[in-house]
Amino acid sequence: MNDPPTMEQTDHGPWGARATERRAAFPPPTATDAINEPSGENGQVSSSMIKPHLVHLSGSGTGLGHAVVERDVELAAGKHPVAQPPVGPGAHVLVVHSGASSTLSWSADGFARRERFHRGQALINPAGWASRPRWDEDVELMLVALEPAWLEKLADEGGFRGTLEITPSFHLSDPFLATLVERLVLEYEQKGPADALYAQSLLQAVAAHVIKVSAARRDGLRDRTGGSASPGLPPRRMAHVVDYIQANLAGRITLDDLARVAGVSASHFTRVFRASTGQSPHQYVMRRRLDRAREALLASDAPIAHIADACGFADQSHLTRTMRRHLGVTPSALRATYSS
Question: Residue 128: left if φ>0, alpha if ψ -120 to 50, beta else—which one?
């Protein structure tokens, strides 16, 4: 198998009278979701439990308990009957591309990304991480939604110490993971009921592999190498901070503002921000301002002084000094190079 994936997932899904944690990860659908009750020998449903707007082809329904696996079709951007949810999924969602190659656009760390996906390539979308994915064409996808509490329990039982945090992985090429997911999906596409033990074993293998390739330790506990893992911001809070920075680059951004958005004290913020990004808040904001200034210089004929002001620099000289120091080129030289 070698096909690309998507990375959008949702927080809708009918799990009946399950535990509170499961309902939090997979909330019941609204009237507009119109998800039918489980039917058939495998407890399958006629609509997607992971993303209600997907065209549902097959899946486990409620048969796996703490997870849902499906094969669905994601319609191209602009074809969705309803808008994408503004928040990330309530479950960790693994998406493996299983059809013809297609191009995916998404947002990560406040930046727009765009990649060509091929059969077998995957995405891991952590719970709470809103990536706003958009496909250029209709695509066939295999999706696995994992309940966060169950995945953390599995990690604990496997000796993974500390608070489990799944980090986003985009454009992931992992043939072994893609094969596991495909076999799990195929188990629910055969005639007759799925082999519950076999399906659960495959699910455990998929979950363990997701932990292996996309998990990070938090809470300052020691990592596998014996070093101290510095606690960073959870993905959802980090996304809020990045969005705030992107929206306010033209103005004054203070440490107190960023700490407030992150929900931590200003004295604690710098440490957790550096643990999440590898940069101080100042370094990160300056890099984002330089990136925006560079884009504006190449995409418009606006005066350099105006661009400097719009990107949060004190004046044109400040932009020139900063760009020369970090990029080795002045704004006017950069513009001349690309316009010639």
Answer: left
